[in-house]
Amino acid sequence: xxxxxxxxxxxxFSWMSFPFVVVAxxxxxxxxxxxxxxxxxxxxxxxxxxxxxxxxxxxxxxxIEFFASGSSACLAQLQQLIELHDSYANQGxxxxxxxxxxxxxxxxxxxxxxxxxxxxxxxxxxxxxxELANDYHYKGIPATIVLDCEGKIARTFFGFxxxxxxxxxxxxxxxxxx
Length: 178
Prior knowledge:
The protein has a single domain, classed as Glutaredoxin, CATH 3.40.30.
């Protein structure tokens, strides 16, 4: 009985502190279909209060990640992006993460905050709108869009992908950055 009570108490507090919503992830697919397309610029407010505009990062490769905080595939993808950030941010790689929770689940954007701190995300995180997601050819989570140094799509990854799959594109773009 004591074990059951501990489980209920821990489960209740865990649930209250970090909402869990099951969101199905896409089957992994790498797509060159949209390569070379110009995409919509957007801005995010960084945790330090600065506004970061994706167009200010022309000249370096940028990764745009669409994720849902309740998806284990998205959490795993974010971990891969943290590793890419740690390896290539000092060479110019920029990463922006956009939560789709508000239109994929019933969660509000504020529910993403615990995830940012829990995972210690080193890149800016904001909330995506359906319109912005559509402009980036979003079709589900996780979606990783790599932009070239001119702000055009270099590659799109739907579903979870190991960093080793994304890394060669990043290396190639860093070698050609302005």
